[in-house]
Each structure stands twice: as C-alpha cells, then as structure tokens.
Amino acid sequence: MRNYAISKARHALVLLAAFMLSLTTAWAVAPVINGHVYTGPSSLAEPVSGSSVQLYYILAQHSTSVALGSSTTTDSSGAFHFNTGSGPTFSCPTATPTVPIFALVTGGTASGQASANSKIKMMSFLGRCNGLTSTSAVVNEATTMAAVSGMANFVTASSPTAIIYPTAKEDVFDLAFETTLALADPTTGAVPGASQTGFTVSALDIAKINTEADALYTCTHSTGGVPGDGSACGNLFDATTGLSSLGSAALTTGAAVAATETWSAAFNIATYVVPSITALSTLALAGTPPFTPTWSAAPPDLLAHHEAQTATPTISLDTTVTGQTTVTITNCTLSACTPGAAIFYTTNGSTPTLAATPYLGPFVMTSSTTIKAIAQEAGFTTSAVASTSETVSGPHIALAMTTDIQVGSSSTGTITLSSAAPAGGLAVTVTSGLPNDLSMSSGAGTATQTVTIAAGSTTGSYTVYGTNGGFATITATATGYGQGQLTAHCYTTITSGAGANNTTTKVPVYGLTDVGYSGFLVANAPAGGDVPDNSMEMINADPGVFAAAVINLTWKQLEPTPGNYDFSAIEQAIANIEAANGSTYYVRAKFRIWAGNNVPTWLINQEPVILSGATSYGVYVEDGANNTVVNALYWSSSYEQQYKALIDKIALQYDTRKMVQEVSVGACSSTTEEPFNNDIHYAWTGYNDGTTQFPSLLQAGYTDVARVTCVEDISADYAGFSITPLYLDFNSIRMIDSKNAIFRAGFSLEQMQAWADARGAQGLVANDALQPETTVNTQEDLPIYDEFRILKYTSGVSLVSESVGFQTAAQNPLNIDNGSSCTFTCYNSFITWAAGPPPTGENGSEVEIWPTTAITYADGKHGQNPLSAADLQSIDVNAYPSFSAGTPEY
Q: Which pLDDT score, from 0 to 100, does residue 210 have?
C-alpha cells in the first residue's frame, strides 16, 4: 500500500520557503483567485452554475476551519473570483500567512440539468495562503476525493470544515496536506497533481481517485435525490452508507455518517475500507466514466495513503591519521534532515538493510572498501542508500574476533598488521571502551591489554572477557600504525542442555494448544502472580489431549537489563513439558513473548517524552482489564531494533530446538502480544496517576504511519527464525491520528498477503479474538464470525500455509451456538466450527484453549482459574480426525 512517498526534508523546506516569503511581505497578502466548478474533468467543460463557494483556512491546534471573508456564487460558466472583479475580498491571516486553505462548494446546477442539485458538496485544497498570489483553481469530484483521501486521518464525519489539526502533529498534518496536492492538481482538477519533489503517485492511486470521482459524478451531474429513491444520487448514497457484501456474507460497516450529499459519500469512501467495493465499482464504471484511467479490478482498500521518506544519510571520512579512516555517518545533509533516525551500514560494499550493523558512533576503517548506509525513522520509509569508497594508505592494524561473547566466557581475536613489525617488535595496545562489561582480563574492570608482535611478523592475538551485558568498542593502537577497531557484545543466556534434539525441519501445530495462565498480564495481579506460570497444570490434568503448550514469557523476564538475556524461564518451562509427556503422546512448546505492558523498566526509561516542559517516561495504555499500565514507545525505531535483538537471541538459541514447534509473533504490540491491536485507552488524552502526568500517545510522538511501518517490518524482525513456524494473528488495524478510531481492514489484507509471500508455509495465520470495538468511536462493526472469513477466504489472499489458528477466548464474540454464553460446555461446538470444513467450518488446524475468559484470582497465584479435569475431558479430541495429541516424532 506504499503508493507514494515524501521526504520530511521537503516538508521543512516548504515551510522555510513560505516563511521567507512572509518576511518579504510586510503587508497582508491578498491572493487573487480565479476558479471554476465543474462536474467531471475540466476538459469536458461541464460547469456548475449557482454554486456557493466559501474559502477556509486551517490553524494548528484547532478542531475546525475558519472562513476567509464572504462566500461567492458561480456564474453560468461555473466561474468564481476572489480579490478580483466583483468577487469578495479577503487577506491571509497576518500572524499565520502560511496556513493551508481550501474551497468548499455547495449546491448549484450542473451543465445540461433542468434544476439545481442541493446534494452537490465538493472541495479542493488550493495551497498555502501566501503562496497563492494569482491562482487558477478548479473544484470537481477528483479534487474532492484527493482532499478527503489525503486528509483521511484528520477530517471528521460531522462536516468538511471540521478538520482536526492536533497539538504536536504539525509535521504529520502538513504532509497529509501536501498529499492532497499530489493526488489532484488544484489548478486543473486533473489526477495526479503537478510533479512535486519527493512525491510519486502510483498507478493504483491514480485509478482509485479517478474511479471514486466517477462514482461521485453520477450524483453531481444530476438533479439530486435521497437514499433509497433509485435516483443517481440515491444510488450513490446507498452504495456508500454502511452496507456491503463481500462474497456471500452480508456485512455492515457501521459508518459514522449517513451519506446524504457528495462530500459525506466521499468521506465514507475514503475513511471506511470495507463498504461494498463491488457495488461502488459497478456504479462508478457504468456507461462512460469521465475520469480515467480507472481500476481494472476493485482493490481491497479504497484509501490512497501517504508516507514520508527518511532523509539519505551522509558519510564523512577523516583520513588525517596515516593508515586509518575515521567514518562518521549523520542523518542530515545540507538539504535534508530526519532527526532521530536510526542508521545502518555495511563496510563490504553490500546494500544495507535494517538487519545491517547499527551505527552507534564514529568508527575506524583500516582497509580500503566501500561503505554504504541507510537511515530509518519510525513512520517513514527507508532512505535511499548513501555510498562512498575509502582508501586507506600507510601501515595499519586490522582486528577480528567472534564479537558475541557470553557472560563468563571469552573470545580470542586476531591482530593483523598491513606491514611486518619493525626490528625489536611492535607493542600493540588493545583497549575496551567498557571494561566493566568486556574486560581485557578475566576480572571485570581491566581496560587494556598489551600484545607484542615479533619483528617481521604480521599477526598476534588478544582475548576479551565477557563480564557483564553490554556493547563495547575494542580498539588496537600502535606507534606508526593506523588503529584497528570493532564492536563486541556481551550477553547473558542459558545454553541448551545436552540432548536438545535439534532439527532442521518443523511442522505447525495440528490440534489443541494449552495457552496456560494469563493473569500475569493485568496491572492488579496478586503478589507472585505478575510472572508467567508455566507449570503445565492443564497438560497434567488431562494427558493426551494437547498437541502443544504455550510457554508464556515477558520481555522484562528475558532481558532484565540491556543486553543481559536470561532464558532460564524457557528452560524450566521446557523441562515441565518434558516431565508431563508420556510414552504415547508428546506435547511440544509454543513460545509467546509478551511485550506491551510487560516490557522492562529500562526500556521505558530510554526514550523521554517532554510534556508541558516536564520530562516523562512511557505512555499509559489499558491492560485488557480496564487497568492503566505503562508501556514504552512501542512504535519507535529504537523500540523495534531492541525487540528484534531479543528475538534474534531467542532464535539463535531455539530455532533448531525440536521441542519448540511454534513461535507466536508479538512485534509492535501495545498491550497484549497481538501486532494489529492498537490500544486507544489514552490515545488522545494523557493520564495523571497522582504523581506524574503521562502523555497521550499523540503527545508522545505516535503516528499511524509509524505503527504501519512497524507492522510492515514484522517478517524482518523475525528473520532469525528460519525453521520454526511463526504464528501471526490478524485483526483490522486501527488508526488514531485523527482522534477518531478508524479501522483499516484493507491494510490487514495486504499484510496477510505480504506475510504469505515472505514466509510461505512457515507463516501461519490466526484470528485471535477478533471482535467489534463497541466501546470506542467505531467505524467498522463487522459480525465477527464473518470477519476472518473475509480476511482469508474472500479477500483473494493466496496463502501458502494451510494452517489457520483460533482461540477459545474468541468464542463468545464469534457467536458460536447462536450467541449463547459459550463456556466449557460448548468448547466442542467451537472446535467443530474452527476445525470443520467450509461452509459451516473454517478448516482450522490449531485451536488454543484458554482456561477461562474471565480474569479471577481464586488460586492466588496464576491470576486465572485452571480448568478442571472434567472441563478438559468434555473436549472430545477424537471427534476431529486432524486433531490429536502430539506424537514423539514428526
């Protein structure tokens, strides 16, 4: 869905140019605007006469637009004028002359029509006020769709003038404004807009805007109508107001606004992605559509998206020291800058990815090579590749070693001289930048180690000792030689025990999975209950029922301090499973790594947030039980990098471990382990715990684009797992930039296909607890027993894997047993639905059994009541041929 990109640097330059223009204009700017209102492209010359035209401007930190002067009325040629002829006058606000302005058109009589059409309501963003000077303008259906699509996260359902420009979101808002100008040219009404630096509008976006404009044209080029009357306008309103069908399932979008004129129809098209796309397509493409080219096949998502591109980094080389080059990489150039972007580089000429070496500061090269770098800021596309060649001349030192060192272990490295040591030998001093973490002796705290290389020799060796978790720069220096340098990493982990029974092939779980206890998730868990309990009581209660058991793990357990990985909980849980296994059945492990509100405190404290001049750490979210909990900035690049580092370490240890049959994907999670769920409990208003004022998500820098970018990177985050099946659940992602919870099912469809393409049979698909979000301002309230069917079976997504997972936690929302309260007694009905063949079933391969959907503390430890043996025995596994307890071998 990455349809076009814009550099944040361009946004800054636009504002700078506008500001400079304002400095040269001491008087109030009064732009001359000569415009036309048309139905269809201006080339058709179908003017709309008698339309009311009003100009508005938008101020930052406001939730509505402000009228600029008086309105005017179009003449018989559809023309209107401001600050010229008989048209009304206005001036740009003297304090904020760079504000965006738009024209809103209502009513009028379309060319060739017998009477006025009160259902015409169109708009066009014209530009920044003081940059218009003398401007031609066109308002038509294409500029209307461009306006609503570009500003989709900021327009509201109540009125086209109710555009939210939230506090501390100027960059994101202004980029959205620039997008409207790229989608349609406000001076001609043509699609796409005039070429602008940093923008590329895709063929799909062009087709979307054109086809959607064609749908609006069916109403604007008529005399009006109302929903249900069979008129051209009535048909448009019917097709864009909360109704739909995809495949055979009748659906309701629950749109927040009933379409009663063309602007509200456009609003529903752009902001609700599961209306009847087929019906809309049929309406738009009937006859000869005026706007072309149109789409050849209806897309899963009607909205054209915008994204920003991270500025290309700059590589600087310092060769003042003979035999070495000091390399510095910054994320700014003379013309572009993306503050806070993460930088990744390679030194062998290969093209870097987000898995390349992260840039932590200047480093030294002692051999000639090509250095390449990219930059990535959360919410922005990856930058272009920066590249430079460097040549090192003169004697120099090269260092090599195994750079990952476990605490209590050591790594012996090699020193290589580019020219032989002189007579008398050469003393080389090897220094650790953090001797308390990576020491140059077996005890912590030794900063240097001296190595003597014999005369005429070119090699020597040194040893680095891991004493505490962390990263350190290891540097080698010697008189007359350029220094050598590398970065080493010390970590803590528990190694696999003897007889780990490693493998190079694995298959997904088929059957029932014991989810275990999840009471540790909530903020008010009792003492001792805030750590996952993996005692496997459910497996022991009914041997032979389960094929797998979830090992619940939290980030704060696994990495208590930065770089210190403690996997003892994993080993203990695996031991518990192995102890429960019998001779005729074999339960395997499924990892579920909980981030969200279970991240370590050090991670929360890494990224401060300034709120009203005060420093705060973390954001408040809701834990799933209406409790407030603190999370880190889960959308940021820094967060994602450190999460990936954790997953990489787990993969290194367990990807080939035969006992570990699946890993549940938990990247980008806000409160649980589900990537597509986005908590909005404190999205727009902060929270005061009585001591500290915590910022809202938006105040802390959250953007929808950042979250989308994080989700799109999930496969890369789990690149370390090349064997173990990966279980990823899909929901309709929720966008919140506009302070209005908008769901994007089309994005989830795209990501499902991307997941299938990237991972093939290794990429498993799940539907964890899909349910309508009825407690917030929802715009997509689907009958949930159809939502996953839409996502998988009706979307046209080509899934390689036949594995589809379900959870009994979803059984009530899934409305099994005709909506009755489904507890233990109807697990069999749920499993029949999940595992059975269509049309009555979903061909599921795995069902996760949750102990209960109600969080209680009866046992005082686990946070949830365990199932009784009778509850478990009510599950008739033998009724499902594809479901059985695990077997000793695959």
A: 95
